[in-house]
Write a structure and sequence with these properties.
- The complex is a heterodimer of chains A (about 220) and B (about 350).
- By secondary structure, chain A is α/β, with parallel strands linked by helices.
- Chain A contains ten helices and five strands; from the N terminus they run αααααβαβαβαβαβα.
- Chain A has helices at about 1-15, 20-30, 35-55, 65-80, 85-90, 110-120, 135-145, 160-170, 185-190, 200-224, and strands spanning about 95-100, 125, 145-150, 175-180, 195.
- In chain A, helix 2 (about 20-30) packs parallel to helix 4, helix 6 (about 110-120) packs across helix 10 (about 200-225) and helix 7 runs parallel beside helix 8 (about 160-170).
- The longest helix of chain A is centred in the C-terminal third of the chain and has 23 residues, at about 200-225.
- Chain B has about 350 residues and is of the alpha/beta class.
- In chain B, strands 1-4-5-6-7-8-9 form a seven-stranded parallel β-sheet, sandwiched between helices. A two-stranded antiparallel ribbon of chain B has the order 2-3.
- Chain B is globular.
- Classes of the chains: A alpha/beta (about 220), B alpha/beta (about 350).
- The interface of A and B includes residues 62, 63, 154 and 187 of A.
């Protein structure tokens, strides 16, 4: 038991210190010992990334560091994922469509949020960057997504999000919409009629889980 | 005083009758597009349309400058990147880079005839046309990217940012290589008649990289670029610049320009009275989405905090309400008299 805890602790540390090789080593060791892959993903990798988010918020880490931590996390995820138990696999938290709006080719923030969604067990449909606005609506309908996440890094592309939100609301008033990116604030959420924004990947994820569960609750009530 | 005298005096820290309101970045409006029947996507590829549109913001609202080009792809395009102009789209989209031409560590080849490449000649022509049209009354501005931001157009941003940490020597070698071409482009704009040149290093605020990395990796090349530009310069950076203002000031531009995240009062006390500080209106949240009285308040606050020139913190989104542009100018006239 002590070894298990220690492995998790080291895994968190290796993610925080963006030591990709160490993360791989630890993930392999974890599997060799026959421990639960899901536990390592949540208590090791994701928990480490949470600390990274805090360091970013405190101006100790900046974007390059966070990107390297994300690489370390991915390295561990690749090893652990094939070992997730079947019963954990079927239980997706929700379906998400994510992308950066047309005119904007920045995808770093979007990719970090996507990573957190994947780790948390969401089914993620990533449309990429510079995505034509109608495409978000089509993809939401096609996948029956619970949540649509829109990203814009520039004030000059932010207005595109408003159009997507209007189109989405028209077709599917219940879908939850999250917007994010450097110029986005709580005020933007209100102005555009979105449901939430996350100031970083970890808080975006927290918001998403909250929104999807409220949406599921609403669906259940309708069925009853 | 003419608007041009007001702007140029401000950049040279000489006396003005009132604080000017102008920009070092894009400031065209849908009102201007409508008035001249110009569609945004085609204005990037036609010097005449570009100049007409650039001058329209002054002609319609008295906003005190004309700035070309409108997009951030000119230098990268001249160095071989393919640009998406979003032709035929009904909504306003700024051109973006479609294909990256380089990876960190690869050799960048800079064409001998760089100044003939892409749209550089077109921008030069648009500058001359603006100058003719405004007849010396209004300052004509143009801009280039800073070396680090240009590197982010040429190289995948993930690659650039991680390499900035892992392989700084390779990134520095590239930035060093970009100094001369950027200065050459800027100087060719000045020769065509640009009164001032903005260097936009918006890829390096402390929202993105650490102040330490700014100092070792970004600042040296920014400084070198600015030193080689033979015209008054504005160094612009958006995002969080509170930890960086001293270093920005050290880069040696005639003025620094900051956005709404900057605490101008604190910046003024850090840099002293001699520094020329421009800013710090929220270019979208207030100028476009605010009410006219919010615009007025923002202008008043910026002047009270100590800006030498009222400037939007970024390109003005073209769908700006006409009444807000008028409110901006009225507020400058009301609160900016010296």
């Amino acid at each position: 038991m002590a070894e298990k805890e220690q492995l998790l602790e080291e895994m968190r540390k290796a993610v925080i210190e963006f030591d990709e090789d160490r993360v791989k080593e630890l993930a392999n060791r974890w599997i060799e010992l026959g421990y639960d892959a899901n536990e390592a993903i949540f208590e090791g990798l994701a928990a480490g990334m949470e600390v990274v988010g805090e360091l970013f918020a405190k101006n100790e880490y900046f974007v390059p560091e966070v990107l390297m931590c994300a690489d370390a996390l991915y390295a561990g995820l690749d090893i652990l994922r094939p070992h997730i138990k079947a019963e954990d696999r079927t239980e997706t938290k929700g379906v998400v469509v994510i992308g950066t709006v047309e005119g904007d080719v920045h995808d770093i923030g979007k990719n970090l949020v996507k990573l957190m969604f994947e780790v948390a067990g969401f089914e993620v449909h990533d449309l990429g960057k510079d995505v034509p606005l109608e495409k978000f609506v089509e993809e939401q309908l096609r996948t029956d997504a619970d949540l649509v996440c829109l990203s814009a890094m520039m004030t000059t592309t932010m207005p595109g999000m408003k159009k997507v939100i209007e189109m989405l609301r028209e077709r599917n008033p219940n879908v939850k919409i999250m917007i994010g990116g450097a110029p986005v604030s709580e005020k933007t959420v209100e102005m555009y009629g979105a449901d939430a924004t996350g100031k970083d990947a970890a808080s975006a994820l927290e918001e998403a889980i909250r929104m999807v569960s409220s949406l599921r609750e609403m669906k259940r009530r309708k069925e009853i | 005083m003419t608007p041009k005298e007001r702007v140029m005096n401000t950049l040279e820290k000489r006396r003005v009758d009132r604080v000017p309101a102008f920009s070092g970045m894009g400031n065209v409006t849908v009102a201007g597009m409508r008035k001249h029947g110009i569609d945004f996507a085609s204005s990037h590829a036609d010097a005449g349309l570009m100049a007409t549109l650039a001058c329209s913001t002054y002609e319609l609202f008295r906003f005190e400058c004309a700035v070309v080009p409108f997009d951030l792809c000119v230098e990268a395009e001249a160095l071989g990147c393919e640009v998406n102009f979003y032709a035929g789209k009904s909504s306003i989209l700024y051109p973006t880079i479609k294909t990256k031409v380089l990876r960190v560590g690869e050799e960048l080849s800079i064409p001998e005839d760089l100044l003939e490449r892409g749209r550089i000649p077109l921008v030069q022509e648009a500058i001359s046309l603006c100058r003719e049209r405004l007849n010396g009354e209004v300052a004509v501005g143009s801009y280039v990217l800073g070396p680090f931001t240009l590197a982010g157009q040429l190289i995948d941003l993930n690659d650039l940012l991680k390499s900035s940490f892992k392989k700084p020597a390779q990134v520095k070698a590239l930035l060093e290589q970009l100094v001369e071409p950027l200065a050459e482009i800027a100087n060719s704009y000045a020769e065509s008649g640009a009164d001032y040149i903005t260097v936009r290093e918006m890829g390096a605020p402390s929202d993105v990289i650490s102040p330490r990395m700014f100092k070792t990796l970004v600042q040296p090349y920014l400084k070198e670029t600015i030193a080689r530009i033979k015209a008054p310069t504005i160094l612009h950076m958006c995002g969080d610049t509170n930890m960086l203002v001293e270093m920005l000031h050290e880069c040696g531009a005639s003025a620094i320009s900051v956005e709404q995240k900057n605490d101008v009062l604190a910046t003024r006390s850090k840099l002293g009275e001699e520094a020329v500080i421009l800013g710090n209106l929220d270019a979208y949240g207030v100028i476009v989405k605010g009410t006219s009285s919010e615009v007025e308040q923002a202008v008043k606050q910026a002047i009270e905090a100590g800006v030498d020139g009222v400037m939007p913190g970024c390109d003005i989104w073209p769908e700006v309400p006409e009444e807000n542009m008028h409110a901006l100018m009225q507020a400058v006239e009301r609160y900016g008299v010296r």
